[in-house]
Amino acid sequence: MFRLLARVTLVAAALFMAPAAWAQIVPFEVRGGVSIGGVTDPGTSLFDPDRIAEANVELLYSLPGIGDLGLLGEVRPHLGGTLSFSGGEHLVYAGLSWTFRPPVLPVFGEASLGGAWQTASDPDAPQRFGCPALGRAAATLGVDVLPGASIMATVSHVSDFGACGTPDNGRTDALLRVGIRF
């Protein structure tokens, strides 16, 4: 757990220490919120407030000339992490997100694909995955509540696809997040 927190802190510090000129060239968005882990596990209830036991933070960057697809949306790299407070897996992930905003309406949809690295903080707990390297996919629906600020609901799924010698027992999370775009 300490190693994961140290790594996430180092990455966040490196990202925030970028010079002002770089920040003008590469605008970014910061998202954060709460997560309910394992919503598709047997015997779980999505609407049980006691299951909110994870925090999530994510950074998305706009790359000039690369990510703008005009009317088709915007492709941005992302880097994020989910910290479990209930002894579950902690996740660090990265990949690409495609955001589509219809003209005039203050709503957006997003699809993300990438990879993740997981660690379980409790070695005595049953392990969900056969290895730490995972694939990740996510879908988001959001509403722009102010210029540069949004509220969104996300469904995220990580899995090792059975590639590590154990049956595939993927994890699906439901997230409620707030985003600030700079």
From TrEMBL:
Residues 1-23 form the signal peptide. Keywords: Signal. It comes from the Bacteria. This is Acyloxyacyl hydrolase.
